[in-house]
Design brief:
By secondary structure, this protein is of the alpha/beta class. It is 43% helix and 17% strand. It has a five-stranded parallel β-sheet with strand order 2-1-4-3-5. Helix 1 packs parallel to helix 5 and helix 3 crosses helix 5.
């Protein structure tokens, strides 16, 4: 997972740690915090952040970006998506959470999928543990475990 900006709130850090640990029982996971742009216009900040993010990706990486305008899925559909990536031999699946002003068009165009967690708006920091929880939930669904009911 890649995201822009530091995780500042203790409760969010705790959620990230908790669910990253749980996900790590099922699959390898790396969390990369990239520097966000504070002293730039929205457009320029998105461009710079996008360049920084894209440099982190290998050419074969399947990128999923989180965006409020993206496709919504149920937890089961999300698990099916992850399962298909696994079954198709995807070597690296990267989820990216943008900064306060979202992603540049370059990042959105590079993405294999643009995903929204909800029709509601959340802070970009709150999305971090929410997404990790959904990845964990997907792992339990794929393994027929009782966490998801």
């Amino acid at each position: 997972m890649l995201w822009l900006g530091k995780t500042r709130e203790a409760w969010i850090k705790n959620g990230v740690t908790e669910y990253a640990t749980r996900v790590g029982r099922y699959l390898p996971l790396t969390l990369d915090e990239l520097k966000d742009e504070k002293d730039a216009t929205q457009q320029e900040g998105r461009r710079r952040e996008g360049e920084r993010l894209l440099k982190q990706l290998a050419p074969q990486t399947v990128l999923v970006v989180l965006d409020e305008r993206g496709q919504q899925m149920t937890s089961v559909q999300f698990a099916e998506f992850i399962g298909k990536q696994r079954d198709n031999g995807t070597a690296e699946l990267a989820f990216a959470i943008g900064g306060a002003y979202g992603f540049s068009d370059e990042v959105r165009n590079r993405a294999a999928r643009v995903l929204a967690l909800s029709a509601m708006t959340f802070t970009h920091q709150m999305v971090r543990p929410f997404l990790l929880e959904q990845i964990y939930r997907a792992c339990t669904i794929l393994n027929n475990e009782p966490y998801h009911h």
